[in-house]
Structure formats: structure tokens, C-alpha cells
Amino acid sequence: xxxxxxxxxxxxxxxxxxxxxxxxxxxxxxxxxxxxxxxxxxxxxxxxxxxxxxxxxxxxxxxxxxxxxxxxxxxxxxxxxxxxxxxxxxxxxxxxxxxxxxxxxxxxxxxxxxxxxxxxxxxxxxxxxxxxxxxxxxxxxxxxxxxxxxxxxxxxxxxxxxxxxxxxxxxxxxxxxxxxxxxxxxxxxxxxxxxxxxxxxxxxxxxxxxxxxxxxxxxxxxxxxxxxxxxxxxxxxxxxxxxxxxxxxxxxxxxxxxxxxxxxxxxxxxxxxxxxxxxxxxxxxxxxxxxxxxxxxxxxxxxxxxxxxxxxxxxxxxxxxxxxxxxxxxxxxxxxxxxxxxxxxxxxxxxxxxxxxxxxxxxxxxxxxxxxxxxxxxxxxxxxxxxxxxxxxxxxxxxxxxxxxxxxx
Length: 409
Prior knowledge:
Elements: H1 6-12, H2 22-30, H3 33-39, H4 41-49, E1 57-60, E2 69-73, E3 79-83, E4 90-93, H5 94-112, H6 116-135, H7 139-144, H8 149-153, H9 161-174, H10 177-184, E5 185-188, E6 191-194, E7 201-202, H11 209-218, H12 222-228, E8 232-239, E9 250-256, E10 263-271, H13 277-280, H14 288-299, E11 308-312, E12 315-321, E13 327-328, H15 331-334, H16 338-356, H17 359-366, H18 371-399
Antiparallel strand pairs: 1-4, 2-3, 2-13, 5-6, 7-8, 8-9, 9-10, 10-12, 11-12
Helix pairs in contact: 2-3, 3-5, 5-6, 5-16, 5-18, 6-16, 6-17, 6-18
């Protein structure tokens, strides 16, 4: 039984957000039950916390829905499939991540089609199978386990694999720093500048990018500072990104190396309290940007060499490379191959939990029966129903003029 109203939970998150972007957040979340689900991690956190839990702690991703898994380049420039979003990361019960993932399968399938039942079953089977494998593995083998793109592609059928491989290769080629340079920059007054696309991307005189950059540099190890110092910041814009992140202050920073053909793009993103902190306790890190980055390093097998954190003007931020060969799926692309994609996600989630938690204890908790799988399957269906009700509540509030909204961007 809920003790808090869904709209109250969501509105409380706006306290640290840019006020002019809050209507955009409502607009994006109201588009469908799927977009609502992506933006309502705080609602689900409160609901999960009201239920009994295992007490088996891992470093939660915190928002392990399907689109928060993707491919990007390791420091060795190999494509790896892994979790990609850690805004809500915090130590907590392992099954909360599992519940977030399997429910996302159900919600996405209702919107875009796909075999929800089969995908949930295969996701849970993959999670269970890999946890059992990690329970018997050497610690270093688990720590270094990386799901290379070829391993990711192995879950697809022989017929689908070449098409998926070609799509990934095309995307990865385009989503590089030089690709961003071609797409998002221009020469203005003889200088390289990020092109504007208001209100998605625009220059702001009040942006704290310079101040943040200096603080961010101090968070890097010495050898990374040496690398960063080979680049010079030349421009910055404010960005509007995602669904749940809308309203959080995000800056795209352009740095230049030897010349205008040698770019580095960094994304500086505001970090607030994890949605799980009211239930799991405060993070051990005072700065929420550091909480995000330390969680990312713990969960991922390989992490961007430029990740760091900063604080300025009363807000915390984390920093990462922008795009850097990142290949992120869309719901309509996943739907026809939902069981295969869900299998890969279940594998990754098990790996992340084995790195940060006790796979032997989790394996024992899962057992060899059907109780855990059946319980999670029933939860996914029931919570997808609740999510639809919550989405309708948001749409109703917008229609009644209770919440302001902006759409179209």
C-alpha cells in the first residue's frame, strides 16, 4: 500500500532542477507509459522499498531498464556491452535491479510489441545461469569478465546476427568525437563552436562550465590529467537529454587538441541524491557526482578514461565522454528481438552484481526451484499495470492544468 502520492514523489525531484525545463520533463514523461516508466525511477524505488527484500546487497545500477544497457568503447577501443546509466547507483538489495529490468521488458513490449513472456523468462534464466557460474568462478575471472560485442551478438539467431553486426558497426563509426565534430560544430568568427539547436542545445551566459572544468580536473588521476591537459576548452552549451534526466543541468563541453580536427567532447551532468537513499541510507560519498562515478567503476568491467566529478554553485556533477562509440538501442528496434536482447541484459546484470556483491549468497537465495522466477514474472506484469495507472494520473494532471507541460523537443 502506497503512503506517498505518485505526483508528490515526482514533484519533489524538481527542487534541484532547472525550473524552465520542468515542463519539458512532464511533456516527455506523459508521452506514453514507457516514457513515464523511464522517468519514474523514484516512484518504483518507493514501491520496492515498501516490500520485503532479501538483504543481499550489491551496488545497484538503480535504473536497470532495457535502454540503459548498450555498447561503447573500452579504453582499449573494443566495443563492450554493459550497463550505461548510474545516476541512481547505490548499495541495495540485488532484486531491486532485477525487478526494474524485468518490468521494463513488460512495459516496453506493451508499447512496441514483442514477446514479453518469453523475454522475461529468458532474462531471468540468463541472470540465474550467470550468477551460478560466477558463484563458482575465481574472483579475478569475475572481475575481468567483459561482454565483448561478439559475445553480445552470439545471443542473436544466425539469420539476425549479420544485420545486427552491420548496424552496430555503422553506429559505432558515426558516434565518435570526430563524428560529433562534423554534426554538431561550425566555424564562427574564425573559431570552432558548438552549433545551437534551441532549446535542446544552446549557449547560456550563466553556465558554470569553466568553473566545473577546473574542479573536474582535480578528480582525475595524474596520468589522466596529463592527457586532459593536451586539450583546451573552447566552447560549452547547455543540453536537454533523456527523460528522467530532463531538468538536471547538463553541459556539453568542446575541447580542442592540436587543431580543429582534433576534438574531445565531454558531457558534464548534474547529479542529485539517489532515489534509493531515503530507503537505503545516504551515500558514503558527500558529492553525488563522485557517488555516480565510483558506482560506475564498481559495476562496469571497463570504464571511460575521462570519468570524474565536480561541484559548483551548490550542485554536484559527474563528467564522461560524449558518445565515444556508444550504440544505444531504441524500443522499436529491440521489440522484434526482445528475448535475445533481454538475455544479454540478464547476463550483464548478473555480472555487475557478482562484481559488487556475493554471487554465492545470491545463487543460494535464487535456489534451483521456480519461486524467484515466478515471483518476478508476476511482479513485472502487475507493476506494468500500476505504471499504466500512474501514467494516466500524470496525463490527467497535465490536462487539468495542475502541471505545466511542453512538448515537441
